[in-house]
Design brief:
The complex is a heterodimer.
Chain A: E1 3-7, H1 9-26, E2 33-38, H2 42-57, E3 63-66, E4 96-104, H3 108-120, E5 125-133, E6 145-149, E7 156-161, H4 163-166, E8 170-175
Parallel strand pairs in A: 2-3, 2-4, 4-5, 5-6
Antiparallel strand pairs in A: 1-8, 7-8
Chain B: H1 2-12, H2 36-53, E1 67-72, H3 78-89, E2 93-98, H4 110-119, E3 124-129, H5 134-139, E4 145-151, H6 157-171, E5 178-182, H7 189-200, E6 204-208, H8 216-219, E7 235-237, H9 240-244, E8 249-252, H10 268-275, H11 279-282, E9 290-292, H12 305-308, H13 315-334
Parallel strand pairs in B: 1-2, 1-3, 3-4, 5-6, 5-8, 6-7, 8-9
The chains are: A alpha/beta, B alpha/beta.
C-alpha cells in the first residue's frame, strides 16, 4: 500500500528542461510551435515547458489546454461528468502542435486528444510528450518526448502531483491491492 | 377476455406517487432532485459546450451511438429545437415525435407510446406534456433516461438551469442576488423550477403578480406549508413597485393565454397597467438589472417592447445559452460516474 517515489521535485524540473530542449532540437527552433496541455495535469506541464522555451529562446510560444472528455471512447464505462473548456489561443492550421500529458498508459487519451485537435483544424504535425510512460499501450501510439519510463504492473498506479493543482511536485508509484 | 388483458396491463403500470420514486438519478425531472454540486457540474460543462458552439465545425462525438427521442404533446419552438440541436452536436441520433403527427392522434395512450419508443432501443426520452407529473409516470416505467421538458404547471428544469446560468454569467454567482419573478406564478412551471433552483443556490426570490395568479399557500401563511420547501423562503409582493426596488434580476413570465390565466384576470389591459415590466418600473431596480423572459413573449402585455429589446434585456442570450445548457444536461445524464461522486 506504500508509495514509492519515482520522481522528486528536482527530477521533474530536470526532465522538463530536457524535454524543452528536445522539442526545440527536433523542430529546429520555436517557429510555428504550439504547446497544448491535456487537462487536468497536462495543462500546467505545458505552461512550464512554455516558460522554459521562453527562457532558452526569448520567445513566447502559444500555450493552450484541451479537454478530451467529449472525445473518449469509454463514456458507458464511467467518464467524468464534468467537461472543462478547451482553449487554444491561436489557429492551429499549419502549426506544429505538441500535446502534453502527465502520464501515457493505454494511449486512449492521446487518441481522443488527436481527434479533438483535428476537429479544430489541420495542424502541420502533432507530437506528444509525457512526464511518465508507464507502458501497457492498447493502441499503436508512442510518445515523442518522455520524462521517465516507469515499468509498472496493471494493479499499480502512477500519481503525478503538481504544485499548481496538488500543492507539491512529485511522482509516486502506488500498489492497489 | 378484453377485461383480463386490460387488468394485467394496469398492474404493470407503476402508479406510485412522484415522491416514491427511488432512482431519480437516472432522470432529470425537476431541480429538487439535483444537489448544488450537480448544478455546478452542469454549469461548468456548459462553459465547455459554449466553446464548441463557437467552432466552425460544431460536432463532437460524445454521445455517438446514443438515440434520443423528443416527445412533445404541447407546442414548442425553442425547447424542442434546442434539445434537437444539442443532441445532434453531441453526435446522438435525434428522433422528433409530436402528438399531431403520431399515433397519439389515433388515441394511443402515453404509456403505450412510450413503451413503443422504448422497444426501439432509445437511450434518452425528452418529454413535454400538458399534465403535471407525466414525465414521472414515464420515468417509473422505462429503462431509458427521462428529461422533463415541461409538464403542465409543474416543472421545467432545463429552462430554470439556463436562466440561472445566464444570471451567473453576468454576476459571477447567485448568492445574495434579489431576483423578482413577475406574472402568472400559479400556472408557471418555469417559476416553480426557478424558485427551487435559485433558492438552492443562495438567491433571494421575490414573486409578484395579481392575487389570483399566486399560489394560495404562499399568499396566506408560510407556516401553513406542510413541510419545509424552497417556497418557505420566497417573499410575496402584490405591488410591482415594491417588488422591483433594488432588484438585480427581473424575470417576466408569459400570461398563458392557453391555460386558465385569462379567467383569473379582469382584462389583459388591467394586467399590463398593474404588472407590465416597462421603463419606469425598471428604473426602480438596480442600475445593472437584467431583464429576462423564458419566451414566447406577449410583447405589450407582460413586458413592453422597448424593455424586451432594450440594453438590459438578456432574453436572446437565454435562448443561445439554452443549447449549451441542454448539451451539458444530456452529457451529464449520460455519464454514469456522476453517480459515484
Amino acid at each position: 500500500m506504500g508509495e514509492k517515489l519515482v520522481l522528486s521535485k528536482d527530477d521533474i524540473d530536470r526532465a522538463l528542461t530536457r524535454i524543452a530542449h528536445e522539442i526545440l532540437e527536433r523542430n529546429k527552433g520555436p517557429k510555428d510551435l504550439v504547446l497544448v496541455g491535456m487537462r487536468t495535469r497536462g495543462a500546467p506541464l505545458a505552461e512550464r515547458l512554455g516558460a522554459k522555451i521562453k527562457q532558452f529562446e526569448n520567445l513566447d510560444i502559444p500555450i493552450g489546454s484541451l479537454d478530451i472528455g467529449l472525445y473518449r471512447d469509454d463514456i458507458s464505462e464511467g467518464i467524468n461528468p464534468l467537461v472543462q473548456p478547451t482553449h487554444i489561443p491561436v489557429d492551429i492550421e499549419r502549426m506544429k502542435v505538441i500535446l502534453i500529458d502527465d502520464v501515457i498508459y493505454t494511449g486512449r487519451s492521446i487518441r481522443a486528444a488527436m481527434d479533438a485537435l483535428t476537429d479544430l483544424g489541420r495542424p502541420q504535425l502533432i507530437q506528444f510528450g509525457a512526464l511518465v510512460d508507464r507502458g501497457h499501450r492498447e493502441l499503436p501510439i508512442r510518445a515523442d518526448y518522455v520524462g521517465k519510463n516507469v515499468p509498472t504492473a496493471r494493479n499499480e498506479q502512477i500519481n503525478v502531483r503538481l504544485l499548481e493543482i496538488d500543492g507539491k511536485d512529485e511522482v509516486v508509484l502506488l500498489r492497489l491491492d | 377476455m378484453e377485461n383480463i388483458e386490460k387488468a394485467t396491463i394496469e398492474t404493470k403500470i407503476n402508479t406510485n406517487k412522484p415522491n416514491m420514486i427511488t432512482n431519480t438519478s437516472n432522470h432529470l425531472l425537476d431541480l429538487d432532485d439535483l444537489s448544488t454540486g450537480d448544478i455546478e457540474t452542469i454549469f461548468s460543462s456548459t462553459n465547455a459546450m459554449k466553446e464548441i458552439l463557437n467552432r466552425d465545425i460544431k460536432k463532437v462525438p460524445a454521445l455517438r451511438g446514443k438515440s434520443i427521442v423528443t416527445l412533445f404533446y404541447e407546442p414548442s419552438t425553442r425547447t424542442r429545437a434546442s434539445f434537437e440541436q444539442a443532441g445532434k452536436i453531441l453526435s446522438a441520433d435525434v428522433i422528433n415525435i409530436t402528438n399531431k403527427s403520431s399515433s397519439v392522434e389515433k388515441g394511443e395512450s402515453l404509456y403505450n407510446t412510450v413503451k413503443t419508443i422504448e422497444a426501439m432501443g432509445v437511450d434518452i426520452i425528452i418529454i413535454r406534456h400538458p399534465h403535471s407529473g407525466a414525465p414521472y409516470l414515464i420515468a417509473r416505467n422505462v429503462k431509458a433516461s427521462v428529461i422533463n421538458a415541461g409538464d403542465g404547471s409543474h416543472a421545467h428544469p432545463t429552462q430554470a438551469l439556463l436562466d440561472m446560468y445566464t444570471i451567473i454569467n453576468h454576476f459571477g454567482s447567485l448568492k445574495g442576488l434579489k431576483i423578482v419573478i413577475v406574472g402568472d406564478i400559479l400556472y408557471s412551471r418555469v417559476a416553480r423550477s426557478n424558485i427551487i433552483g435559485l433558492t438552492k443556490m443562495g438567491a433571494e426570490v421575490v414573486i409578484c403578480g395579481p392575487h389570483t395568479l399566486l399560489p394560495t399557500e404562499l399568499l396566506n401563511n408560510h407556516s401553513l406549508l406542510p413541510i419545509i420547501t424552497p417556497f418557505n423562503s420566497v417573499r410575496v409582493e402584490t405591488n410591482i413597485e415594491h417588488a422591483m426596488a433594488d432588484a438585480d434580476v427581473v424575470m417576466a413570465l408569459r400570461i398563458q393565454l392557453e391555460r386558465q390565466s385569462t379567467n383569473h384576470l379582469p382584462s389583459l389591459r388591467e394586467y399590463s397597467y398593474r404588472f407590465q415590466i416597462n421603463k419606469e418600473r425598471l428604473n426602480l431596480a438596480k442600475p445593472n438589472v437584467l431583464v429576462m423572459h423564458p419566451g414566447p413573449m406577449n410583447e405589450g402585455v407582460e413586458i413592453s417592447s422597448d424593455v424586451a429589446h432594450g440594453p438590459k434585456s438578456v432574453i436572446e442570450e437565454q435562448v443561445s445559452n439554452g443549447v449549451a445548457i441542454r448539451m451539458a444536461a444530456l452529457y451529464w445524464l449520460s455519464s454514469p460516474k456522476r453517480l459515484e461522486a
